[in-house]
């Protein structure tokens, strides 16, 4: 069922993850990025946290290692979403800086 229109999902309306990946693969990054140490640290921290949360979610799904309630699972998924958004923000700021520098003829 389509959540927006409440109509049954047809084959033409299904989400095509591969098409989305292809459409988003470059993500508009067309300039070389130079990251400041604080940006690298921010990215690394968020990626480590996402990896740790994924491990907890996987453990909760396997062989009674732990039991995750619906609220805990939802909170962990939301945390992944927030951290990935933060990481994308860091890259966006670096991309904006690189684009401005390229327009001024400044290379990294």
Can you walk me through this structure?
The chain is mostly helical and 108 residues long. The chain has a domain at 35-103. Helix content is 61%, strand content 0%. It contains 3 helices and no strands. Helix 2 runs antiparallel to helix 3 (70-103). The termini are far apart. The model has no long low-confidence stretch (mean pLDDT 81).
Note the total helix count.
3
Strand content: under 5%
Question: What is the H-and-E element order?
Answer: HHH
Number of strands: 0
**Radius of gyration (Å):** 19 Å
What class do helices, strands and sheet pairing give?
A: mainly alpha
SSE blueprint:
Elements: H1 17-24, H2 37-60, H3 70-103
Helix pairs in contact: 2-3
Keywords:
about 110 residues; mainly alpha
Can you describe this structure in just a few lines?
This protein has 108 residues and is mostly helical. The protein has helices at residues 17-24, 37-60, 70-103.
